[in-house]
Amino acid sequence: MTTPRPSSPPPLRSSTEERRGDPGQRTPDNHVDHVLGLADDALVSAQRMGWWISRAPQLEEDLALANIGLDLLGQARALLSHAGALEGQGRGEDDLAYWRDERDFRNVKLVERPQEDFGVAMARLLVLSTWQSELYAALQRSTDPVLAAVAAKAAKEVAYHHDHATRWVLRLGDGTPESHARMQAALDAEWPWIEELFDESHLDPALVTDGVAVAPSSLREPVLRRLGDVVRSATLEVPDVPARVPGGRAGLHTEHLGRMLAEMQHLTRSHPGATW
Amino acid sequence: MYGNDFSAPDGPRPATDAGPGPDEPASFLAVLAEEGRIEPRDEMPEAYRRTLVRQIAQHAHSEIIGMQPEGNWISRAPSLRRKGILMAKVQDEAGHGLYLYAAAETLGVDRADLLDQLHDGRQKYSSIFNYPTLTWADMGAIGWLVDGAAIVNQVPLCRCSFGPYARAMVRVCKEESFHQRQGFEILHTLSHGTPAQRAMAQDAVDRYWWPSLMMFGPTDTGPDASAGHTAQSMAWGIKRFSNDELRQRFIDMTVPQAEALGLTLPDPELRWNDERGHYDHGRIDFTELFEVIKGNGPCNAERMAHRVRAHEDGAWVREAAEAYAAKRTQEQEHVA
Ligand SMILES: [Fe+2]
Ligand SMILES: [Fe+2]
C-alpha cells in the first residue's frame, strides 16, 4: 500500500440532487451529468462485453464481441474525458471511471445487469445499439462540439453493432426451436428496461433547448419501430411486459452495479496515487 | 508446443514419427532441397502431413487457451487505457487461433474436429497457459516473457516448409512483437512505480521466468538430449533450430531487457560467458514441465473446464446459425 500522492483524486462529489440547479436553467453540472450518463452507458456495456472474450460460442464471435467492447470502451473514454473537462476539477477518465461509487454512476439499468447468456447479450446489444444509433445520429448536430464529434465517430461504430446484433437475433429467432425459445426469453428479459432510455425526469430541459442534448422521448418512436421490425423478421414477438422503474440516471441502480464496480475498481483503489 | 512440437517422455508418442522413407515423393524432396514451400495441393508424405496437423493444431489451441490467463484481468485492468490494450491483445490471440485453424484446414482437417480433440484431451496446448495470473503484473510478464518466447519460436517458422503455416506466422509474429513491447511497458511502469507495484513486477517475473524457458521444450542437444521430434522436423524444414538454440537466443535477448527494467531474473547462475558469446544459465527442472504437460499443472483443470464450458454453452447458438443458414439456402433453391 502506498500513501496517496498530491495528484490523487479529489473527494467524491455530493449526490446530484444536491448539486442540481433549478430545472430549466442549464448549469454546467447538468451538462456534465448528461455527458456522464452517456459515458457510463458505454463504460458499463464495455465492461459487460469484456466478459465474453474467451467465452463466445465460436472464435469469430470472440473477435466480434471484443471489437464491440473496444468501440464502447473508446466511446466511454472520450465521453469521460469530456465530462471531466466540462467539470473543470482536473478529473480525467480514470478518476471518473475508478473513483466514483455506484450512486454517482449515471448509466441506465439496461446495461448493468450480467449478460452471461448469448441470447441475452444479443437482445441487449440490439436494444442498446438501436437506441445509440438514433441518439448519436441526432447528437452529431449537438451545440456541444466535443459531444458532436464523439457522436459522429460513434455513429459509425454502433451501426456495425446494430448490424451484428440484428444478424444474431434473426439467426437465433429463426434457427432451431430451442434458439427461438431462448431468444424470445432473452427479449422478454431485456424489454422492461427499454423505457428508461426515453425517461426525461433527470435531464435538464435547458440542455435540449440549447441544442446540447437530444430529448430522450423523441427517440422512442424510431427506436421501438426499428426494434419491432427486427423482432418480427426474426419470427419473434415484441414482448408485452411492464416497464421497470427508471433511476439509473439519478444513480439509483440495481444491486448488480455495485458488484461490477467492486471488481472493476478494486486494483486501482488499492493503490491510490499510482500510475499504471 | 506453441510453435514447437514435443510431449512428455513417458506420455503417449504420436504415431507420426516415421523417418524419411520410400513414401517421400521426389517432388517433395526437391522442394525441401531448394528450401521452397510445400503447398496444400502438392504431394507430401502422410507423416509430414500428420506432423503438421498436430503441430499447427496445438499452436492454434495454444492461442485460444492463451486468451484465458489474460482474459482473467480484463475486468480488473487498472486504467481504461490498459483495459483497451488488454482487450485488443486477447482479441489478437483469438485472431491468431483463426489463422492457424485455417492453415490446418488446408491439410484436410476441420476446426470443429480439432476443437473436439482439444476438448477431450487428445490434442494439447502450450504448458505455459496452465500457470495462474495472480496479479496485474502477470499481464506484463506474460507479454514480455511469454509473447517474447513465442516470437523466438515463431520467427523461424515464417520460413517453415509448409506455405500456409509460414504465411500465418508472418502475420502472427508482427502482432506478437507488439504484445511483447506492451508487456515490457507494463513492467517498466510498475518497476518505476510505487514500492508495491515494483514488488508486484518482480514477483511476476520470478514466477514466469522458468516456465517461459520451458516453452522451448526439453533439451534436445548434448548428452541430456531427450528423444523428440527435433531431428525429423528439421529434416522436413518445419523446424529450423533446436530447442536449446532457440532457448539460448531468448535468454540472450531477455537478460539485457531485464536490466533495462531494473528487475532480476530468478537464476543466480545467469552470467555472461565470453568464451561462448552467450549467457550461461542454471539447470532447468524439466520434471515440472512434464508434470504440467501430463495435466498436473496449477491450472490445467480450470483452463479445460473454461474452454469446454464455453463450447458447450455455445452449442445451441452454433446449431441455430446452421439451421438458419440451411433455411436460407432452401429458400434460395426454391426461388431458383
Ligand atoms: Fe498469439
Ligand atoms: Fe501474443
Task: Describe this entry's structure for a reader.
The complex is a heterodimer of chains A (276) and B (336). Chain A is built from 10 helices and no strands. Chain A has helices spanning 16-19, 28-50, 59-87, 93-98, 118-139, 145-173, 177-190, 205-209, 220-233, 255-270. Mean pLDDT of chain A is 92; it is low at 1-23. Chain B is 61% helix and 2% strand. Chain B has a two-stranded antiparallel ribbon. In chain B, a hairpin with a 4-residue loop joins strand 1 and strand 2. Chain B is globular and about 70 Å long. Chain B starts with 25 loop residues before the first helix and ends with a helix. Mean pLDDT of chain B is 93; it is low at 14-19. Classes of the chains: A mainly alpha (276), B mainly alpha (336). The interface between A and B is large, with 51 and 51 residues. Bound molecules: fe (ii) ion (2 copies). One fe (ii) ion binds at residues 93, 147, 176, 179 of chain B.
Chart the SSEs and their pairings.
The complex is a heterodimer of chains A (276) and B (336).
Chain A: H1 16-19, H2 28-50, H3 59-87, H4 93-98, H5 118-139, H6 145-173, H7 177-190, H8 205-209, H9 220-233, H10 255-270
Helix pairs in contact in A: 2-3, 3-6, 5-6, 5-7, 5-9, 6-7
Chain B: H1 26-33, H2 46-65, H3 67-71, H4 80-105, H5 111-119, H6 137-154, H7 163-191, H8 195-214, H9 230-235, H10 243-261, E1 271-273, E2 278-280, H11 286-296, H12 300-313, H13 315-335
Antiparallel strand pairs in B: 1-2
Bound molecules: fe (ii) ion (2 copies).
